[in-house]
Amino acid sequence: MWNWATHPISGLSFLGMVIGAVVILLLTLLVVMYSIYWQRKLIGWIQLRIGPNRVGPFGLFQTAADVLKLLIKEDVIPSKADRVLFLIAPILAFVPAFTVLAVIPMSQHHVFTANVSIGALFYLALSAITIHGVMLGGWASNNKYALIGGMRSAAQMLSYEIPLGMSVVGVVLMAGSINLNDIVIAQSRSIWYFIPQILGFIVFMIASTAELNRTPFDLPEAESELVAGYHTEYTGFRFAFFMLTEYVYLFAMAGLFATLFLGGWSGPFLPGWLWFALKVFLYISIQFWIQATMPRMRVDQLMTFSWKVLLPLALFNLVITAVLKAVV
Amino acid sequence: MALTDQQQPIRTEEMLLNVGPQHPSTHGVFRLVVKISGETVLDAEPVIGYLHRGTEKLAEDLQYNQIIPYTDRLDYLASMLNNYALCHTVEEALGLEVPERAEYLRVIVMELQRIASHLLFIGTYLLDLGAMSPFLYVFQERERIVQLFNEICGARLTYNYVRVGGVKYDAPPGWLDKVRAFIPFMYERIQMYDDLITGNEIFLRRVRGIGVFDTETALAFGMSGINLRSTGFRWDLRKNRPYSIYDRFEFDVPVGEHGDCYDRYYLHLLEMKQSLRIVEQALDGIPDGPTLGKVPKIIRVPAGEYYSGIEGARGELGFYIVSDGKDKPYRLKIRKPSFVNLQLLPDLLRGRNMADLIAILGAVDIVLGEVDA
Amino acid sequence: MSKETQDRPNASAVPSSASAPPSGEKADAEAKAVADEKPAADEKPAADEKPAADEKPADGKPAAATPAQEKSAEEAKPAAAAKPAPSAGTKPAAAAAARPAPAKKAPPPPDPRVEAAKAVAEQIRDVIAASLGQEAVEEVGAAHHTPMVRVRRESWVETVDLLKRHDDWKLNYLELMAGTDYPNYIEVVVYIQSTALGHFVCLKTRTPRENAEIPSLVSVHPGVNWEEREIYDLLGVTFTGHPDLRRIMMWDGFEGHPLRKDYNVWAAKEDTDGTD
Predict the structure, then answer these.
(1) What domain range includes position A237?
(2) Nearest to C225 among B240, B335, B343 (CB)
(3) Does residue A61 sit within a domain?
(4) ipTM
(5) What residues pair up with A42 in beta bridges, in sequence order?
(6) Which of A28, A56, C92, C110 has the least C-beta neighbours within 10 A?
(7) Domains along chain B?
(8) Which of C51, C175, C250 lies at the smallest CB-CB distance from B222?
């Protein structure tokens, strides 16, 4: 298979990269738009409401209208804010969110994505950069709620990154590769890893929820406590960028989840991309379901939970996996 | 070098945070100035008065029946109880006899109102704790109650229904049956909330052992209602100083054990069941007859001073009237349960963190219309 | 003034002869004014209260609520012993006088519940007098059906504290605190409940309108903190010894005290500092 990494960059391959990135960007925007739509519909149904139904058939264009509204809104920069940081924070948050999509194998042949040999590591490393964007955004806003929100999210993302990474290592051990595509292939030959890696699967589910700042771990933007958390002061398209980051990560995390535990694009009968889409849809729906059901945790309980429950559990899983791997 | 670095701790600063008056969890325009260190609350100072409309002053220029609509706007989630509290004091002062049917109708609407108010507490409290769905669920049951009120008095929020000497309208045909049909439905829903919310581990961890105070403190601070009962102290004016016809009904006064937020939440559920029991008995016993007693067109309360309190949705709701024998009160003072209950808040918050702040404030259950009057 | 009311405690059924009619008395002519107004003031409450007085027992019987009522009576007043005495004597008379009362100008017979309340108030007076001296109590009577004792402002805190600690009273649960602006004085009233013994008592004190000042009760009942702030804010009474006496309803820059009868919005300055 042709690989971006092993070939010298020529004008044609560069053009290919750009086209690939643009296609993925468009795809991502579409996914984000309809995840938001689906979120509002699904939560609406759970809460015995109707959800959006005004713009377009079944309200399908509601999110597009919302985005349009955000784009034409005034871009307010608070006069006391740290201007430069305030401006770059949303970009700093968004870029890694989009970049990690490059390594998620959406189909067998990596049509538009990179078959990087260190895929899993790449994902974890890049996604950590987003914390800077969130924290700087909170700090630069010069708003106390935003500051608390930013600090909370930094603490939270750092704490949950570790159990998340540990649960990924379990899968990596089983597959014997960090290449995400290889992991999928390994699963298609044996069994989807959520069964042998059930402990890691649970840890991953919880840690990824926290990593995405979603209920019950949505403390950084806990509306009832911190108004809107780190993006309190952001308006217009900068606010849209933060929202976009959040949903792109949701998509990326769903992709990672499908790849690591549900066999990615592999599956019988249906084409690979459809299997992938179904698994992503499953993860996203579960997230929304949890969001409609759970109250929020308290910040100190959140930390305790990560360090005292999830991390030992993930380490335990790692040890078991290693031992089994050596024995079997 | 290393030693000195260790000896010098990181310099931290306390921060003053204005929670409110525009904040999603202050239930209105309530402002709390909190001094925090990190996320720990060192001190808190409630600032109120943003919704002060001078009800007491306005009342001095109004005839007694004209004051009733103003009481609707105090605790706007329990307007029926406010209506009744005022009328009750005036009736006490006049020594008026209220027709039986009117008393029964009053009890029915008051208990329904209590249920509606408690429901909304559960919804908003869970919303404060980050769960959005219960808030939308409770509106269904509340909607049924509000519809019943709409049918009996033509209003959904500010009823102006209870009048001095009785109630304004008799129940329309079939209304009592609708109330009867509501009871089993409501029992079922209470059970549902119990199943869905009470066992949730995250919820329990947020509310157990938070905002604890004991009976001594509660009494010293004049707290009433569920806030007082959550400490295990059985004090309900419907039992301890019976008014209206509450002495004819059988019902229990549930009390808490620990005086924490969990008890306060759970008592709301239990009290709704008791209210349903009262409504049930009232529906069985309601006689036919007039709904408004013989009340003079212009009510002149004899000179003197009068105080009577009732068990409102949030505690003891009382009206103190000083009359000089004219048709308007010389002075009207409202004993506002939310206002009194709120005083303990700074003591409860000290040493807790920001998330607890919301949990504690929510459980004290204030309505700003009442706090600010 | 105080002597007069003490001298003839059972003379009239007026809920509260001294505090009630603020309509234009002068302080110096107070006693006279009360004496003058008595017949006029008497008839209205009497006419209205009488039906209530004898309906209560009549009401209870058919409604099958007698046990509950008995219980409430038990709980409510250990002073119930005092109650039968006047009521037994006055009830027939009250019933007889009830119907013609509105027409006649004759002084109506007293309401038994008011009489009971007054008897309780007398007991409280004795308790206070025993500890704080005779001059501490300025007036005893009844606020509607609640025993009322008015104490002088110097003994205000001591009185409330005494009644809170006293074994026979234990008035520990302060339910209401209210201030009222009368033409010549400002009166602060508290309604206190004893949760253990069931007493429900009204205590009062007065202060002149100029430089109004009353010792603060916060040390005894911390729950009056905000109520006192509210009275300070709206009526302009300074509570000495209050830990945090600031405006509570109005903003800090506000001038005047709206609940005072002579407060005039139009006379007050159009816009004061910090309106928003």
Answers:
(1) 77-327
(2) B343
(3) no
(4) 0.86
(5) none
(6) C92
(7) 3-372 (1.10.645.10)
(8) C175
